Amino acid sequence: MKKLLYIFLFAGLIARAQTATNDIEEPAPAKGKFAPPVYPTNVRVEANVPYLGDDRAEKADLYFPLQLPKDKKLPAILIIHGGGFNDGDKARPREMNIATNLVLQNYVCMSINYKLRRKAGDVTWPQAVYDAKAAVRWLRKNAERLQIDPNRIGVIGCSAGGNLATMLALTQPKDGFDLPEPNGGVSSAVTCAVDFYGAVDLMNYHDMKMFNKTRAEAPELYVKASPVTYARKDAPPILLVHGTADAVVPVTQSQTLDAALTKVGAEHQFVIVPDAPHTFHLQPKQRDLRPLVFEFFGKHLKDETAAAK
To answer: CB of 211 within 8 A of CB of 218?
Structure first.
């Protein structure tokens, strides 16, 4: 009898593990795994900015150089965390690594939280896209205070954030993701985008809880939430980065978007990182990605004099 009980328990654990794999892109952290954020001291941080309005719980962190240059506006970069649209935070180590490294290269960065699925039945898409676009509009609206150039705004995202980063780059107002508020009438266009291992072709991925519907039930939602759907020749430049050992979002996802962008003649770059798993920042052990990302943003966000430094 005891042996039979163990078999049932073991089967239940396997079933739960399989369900968890299908629920989210990245395993949710165990409770208490992440301590309260300890922000870096070699940059200046303005934490928990209500970029969506005071009635929304989701906030943003702003990162600035310790000393802003006089009489010069800096480019800005939006940072979008991952977590399968169910988990993640603007101030986790990966996002802090990206923000700090970029700010030290004379960018102003904004790391955001956005609408996540917190309980069964929550539908968080397309609100997550609305929030990401609202963040770009907020940066542009507050450009003078932030001392940034509103015409030079890039975006970088990891995993689910990579999906959102490419959605920002590829979708246009006609696609219906720009809400009238907050900051309606302000453009949400970005100058360039970096996608780290994002799921970009959801019809060839797994069912996503953010829709509260399966692919079989609502294929149109999965198509609409896939950046590959919006590949176009006149898109802003995009950098795709993916590891070959990624067991969460297969490298075939980035390969699909690479092929679609190549087909339409869009400017982009696709870099494969051998043996890299899912979830890495700018300095994984397989390869230091800072020169790659710095060169990409420098080319597309800085003027010629600044880029040469």
So the answer is: yes
Closest CA to 103 of 145, 43, 155: 43
Classify residue 11: in a domain, yes or no: no
Residue 32 maps to a domain? no
Listed residue (213, 288, 200) closest to 251, CA to CA: 200
Output the CA–CA distances (angstroms, integers) from residue 174 to 1, 163, 230, 239, 302, in the order listed: 63, 19, 11, 24, 29
Task: Say whether pLDDT at 127 is over 70.
Answer: yes
Task: Return the residue matching tokens 């809880």.
Answer: 209
Token digits of residue 12 = 């239940």
How many residues are recorded in the chain?
A: 309
The reported pLDDT for the residue numbered 235 is 98
Report in angstroms the alpha-carbon separations of 252 from 27, 176, 238: 20, 28, 17
Residue with tokens 């699909």: 256
Query: Could you give the maximum distance between any two Cα atoms of the chain, in Å?
Result: 78
- Tell how far CA 126 is from the center of its chain: 14
Confidence (pLDDT) at 119 = 87
Asked whether residue 293 is assigned to any structural domain, the reply reads yes
| CATH for 209 | 3.40.50.1820
Name the domain count of the chain: 1
Query: What was the pLDDT predicted at 259?
Result: 98
For 293, the domain range is 42-304
> Is position 57 within any domain?
yes
- Whether the per-residue pLDDT at 170 is higher than 90: the answer is yes
* Cβ atoms of 62 and 108 closer than 8 Å: yes
Give the pLDDT confidence score for residue 184 in this predicted structure. 85
Choose among 219, 220, 228, 161: nearest CA to 201.
Answer: 228
Contacts of 24 (CB under 8 A, 6+ apart): 83, 84, 85, 86, 87, 209
Pairwise CA distance, residues 110 & 83, whole Å: 18
Amino acid at residue number 87 = D
